[in-house]
Write a structure and sequence with these properties.
Strand order of the largest sheet: 3-5-4-6-8-7
Bound molecules: iron/sulfur cluster
Distance between the termini: 58 Å
Largest sheet: 6 strands, mixed
Structural class: alpha/beta
Number of strands: 8
Shape: globular
Order of helices and strands: HEEHHEEHHEHEHEEHH
Radius of gyration: 21 Å
């Protein structure tokens, strides 16, 4: 007769399964790894879950049709958990539902230093979505993405494209500010990025622009440096994706603005936007790091 698992372990399972549901994973397969040697005194057996190890997420399509995934333009990550890559679009998903699922999130350690969670902002039906790395100080205070110095430059870039901020959608890979504006760590990205994927699937833009290497590497699931594929069209779940430099990088390296403007002009061509005479990716700012 099956023994009941300890309450503490059951709670862990419950939380983990709840997390998978939040990010849209509802199917699991049984681990087919070689059976481990029997322990002298087995301590736990599940009663509601078949396998005593954490379930592995899997796509419905992988079960029904085990074909090789379409080749990515950028090689995939060589290591690491890829919950991101195993998610299907959730029928009936919406930005309010995703926000509700995130809730008062404590799933990763970034929640400890958070003032406000920065979900995203803009047109929920935008043709163009910008994805950044994570909130900085100003964003953390206001709960809005890209409102600091880098945000002002991004606004100038958007306006140079003939759009307003309200026309596009702007969000980040992680929704809470990393301490001292450090780069989000791998575990933080892996835990939070499924919410980004749901945002992208829900908005379904024509074009995604990834700002900086963290955004580009996360969305494309690659370890390659952004300089290897910046300015070249990539495929992301059937959508066009352009990776370019982060506005904060441009604040430190104004000479790179020309390259970014070329990237944005490619985006404009796809979106049918006209390039205004004399337009550029914003005036050259002075110096310093922006949040
Ligand atoms: S960064 Fe994402 S996963 Fe981490 S606490 Fe914030 S919302 Fe939750």
């Amino acid at each position: 007769m099956a023994e009941r698992i300890p309450a503490s372990l059951e709670e862990k399972f419950r939380k983990r399964l709840s997390f998978y549901q939040d990010i849209g994973i509802e199917l699991y397969y049984r681990d087919r790894a070689p059976t481990r040697p029997q322990q002298a005194a087995p301590q736990v057996r599940t009663i509601s879950i078949e396998e005593p190890t954490l379930p592995q997420p899997v796509q419905k399509s992988q079960l029904a049709k085990p074909t090789v995934a379409p080749p990515a333009v950028v090689p995939p990550r060589s290591s690491g958990v890829s919950v991101f890559g195993s998610m299907n679009k959730i029928a009936g998903d919406s930005l309010p539902k995703i926000l509700s699922d995130i809730g008062d999130c404590t799933r990763c350690k970034l929640h400890r230093g958070r003032t406000k969670l920065v979900f995203g902002d803009g047109n929920p039906k935008a043709d163009l979505v910008f994805v950044g790395e994570g909130p900085g100080r100003d964003e953390d205070m206001q709960g809005l993405p890209f409102v600091g110095r880098a945000g002002k430059l991004l606004t100038q870039m958007i306006e140079a494209m003939g759009l307003q901020r309200k026309d596009v959608y702007i969000c980040n890979v992680v929704k809470c500010r990393p301490p001292e504006n450090r780069t989000p760590e791998k575990d933080e990205v892996e835990i939070c990025s499924p919410f980004l994927l749901r945002q992208l699937d829900t908005i379904a833009p024509k074009v995604i622009v990834c700002l900086g290497s963290v955004a580009a590497q996360t969305v494309l699931q690659t370890n390659r440096g952004i300089s290897h594929f910046r300015g070249e069209w990539q495929d992301f779940r059937g959508r066009k994706l352009m990776a370019t430099y982060h506005p904060a990088y441009l604040l430190r390296n104004p000479s790179a603005k020309g390259e970014v403007w070329k990237d944005l002009q490619k985006v404009m061509a796809v979106l049918g936007l006209q390039v205004k005479k004399g337009a550029s990716a914003g005036p050259a700012p002075s110096t310093g790091k922006s949040s």
